[in-house]
Amino acid sequence: MSQVSQTNLLRRMVFTAALAVTVVATAGCGGMEMDADYPGGGGGDGIYGAYGDYPSDAYVATTEPVYYGGYASYWYGGRWNYQNGGRWNHYDREPAGLYQRRMQGLSRRRTYESSHGRPGGHSTGRGGGRGGGHR
Amino acid sequence: MTSMAYRMGIVAAVLFGAGATVGCGGASAKVPPPATADRASPDDDDATAGLMEHHRHHHHGGVTLFIAMSLDTLGVSPEQQGAVEKIRSDLHAQMEPARAAEQNLVTTLADGLAAGNIDVAKVDAAIAQLTAAAAALHDKSADALNRLHSVLTPPQRAALVDKVAAHWAVWRKANAEETTPNTPDVGRLATLATDLGLTADQVDRIRAALVDGMKAVPRLDPREIGTHLGAFGDAFRNEQFDAMTLTTASGANAHLVGWGGAHMAHFIEAVSPVLTADQRASFAQRLRDHASHDPSAQANP
Q: Which residues contact A39 (CB under 8 A, 6 or more apart)?
């Protein structure tokens, strides 16, 4: 094999490796865009909004938020919501960091009384995370 | 020239890869969210119902209790956990005199309800004792609040302020006056009707009694509580915080706790004559259960 051929082969290998890194890095962050699967992105299936667009007071009072971008975010109604200056906002597109936390199912809710009129300690459930359907 | 083109291609590919990796922080998720497991309304789910029930029966700490409860789901790091749990425990210890006073009030009401003869003078004395304990609470808890501020990050401080406001909103809903037929089905009377199997006639008679009975209860002034919550929120979000500068705290706690105790007492006094003996016994037992437990004081799992 000539020196020129060897050089060309080496260049092709490096170029192929660079492209492979690109593909893996892009897919690895879970970031290919499919907004229809994140209702906040505008392609929603309508699961938010039926009870109001943003978390209820009781939901905020009993649910552990996820801190992202300097705000406490609550998964509610199929999207991430956060308060800024007393007003609610939401992410139109799900940030990768919040997506990863949601997949880990880390959103915790606290129940103070066991049921209507029947005090009985407390329980801690997991809500809002993987199920993500409080609305 | 060919070599230069290849190098540019490689650099472009690598830069694209790096850019895509960094930029994906704001991109939407590739995998669809899991199927919704719980489609209940937030007004119907267990956590909401449990919180309403708690705020209906446990007033003793006032805003301090709201703060302590907000720590339950604030979301702190493992490094913060020990310090925050110690502060939470300290706050509950400082609320203990008020909790004991509330326990005395509820037990007095339960005894009178079961006997069909509520001792109003004894109840009024218990309310006064509870109110005094609540008024003294803020000064005792100021050091714990200052330590809490120093432990939390700015986003956590803001989240705590939002949670305290949320507790206040739920408390108001749970203790709304129910003197009209258009009261919500999650209110105190509706809950009691379900739990005791009240007839429609009983509900109507209780509602009529509430109209008269509640006239004796001084009106709740939500502005006083709101003013204090606003002052607390502004101060707690700041980089510097001193709880002792919150001059509205003691008055707000006394007002909220005193009104909560009086409202609960008058509700029970209005209900008692309408219930059967069995219903009174059942309701009294439920009150004793509430008096003997304090779920918000239990440590977080």
A: A45, A46, A47, A48, A77, A78, A79
Residue B82, pLDDT score: 97
Q: Which amino acid is located at B278 in the chain?
A: D
Residue A28, min C-alpha distance to chain B (Å): 8
Work out how many CB contacts closer than 8 A connect A with B.
245
pLDDT at B79 over 70: yes
Of B276, B148, B123, nearest to B213 (Cα)? B123
Domain ranges within chain A, ordered by starting residue: 1-32, 36-126
Closest to B24 (Cβ–Cβ): which among A26, A111, A124? Answer: A26
- Do the Cβ atoms of A122 and B298 come within 8 Å? yes
CA–CA separation, B227 vs B146, rounded Å? Answer: 20
Flag whether pLDDT at B19 surpasses 50.
no
- DSSP secondary structure code for residue A52 in this structure: B
The residues in A 89-108 lying below 8 A from B, measured between CB atoms, are: 93-97, 99, 102-103, 108
- On the 0-12 / 13-18 / 19+ scale of CB atoms within 10 A, B254 is buried
- Assign B297 to helix, strand or coil: helix
Q: Residues B62, B67, B70, CA angle at the centre, nearest 5°?
A: 125
**CB A31 to CB B27 under 8 A?**
yes
The ipTM assigned to this model is: 0.82
pTM of the model: 0.77
CA angle A8, A14, A17 (to 5 degrees): 140
Choose among A81, A16, A97: nearest CA to B22: A97
How many whole angstroms from its chain centre is CA B111?
27
Nearest CA to CA, how far is B27 from chain A (Å)? 5
Count of beta carbons in the 10 Å neighbourhood of residue B197: 12
- For residue A1, the distance in angstroms to the closest alpha carbon of chain B comes to 19
Q: Measure CB to CB from residue A96 to each of B25, B165, B195 and give the nearest one.
A: B25
What sign for the dihedral angle of Cα B264, B265, B270, B275?
A: positive
Give tens-digit pLDDT for B152-208.
Answer: 999 999 999 999 999 999 999 888 866 555 555 667 888 899 999 999 999 999 988
- Indicate the DSSP class of residue A50: B
Which tens digit of pLDDT belongs to each residue from A57-89? 999 999 999 999 999 999 998 899 999 888 899
CA–CA gap between residue A62 and residue B144 (Å, rounded) = 22
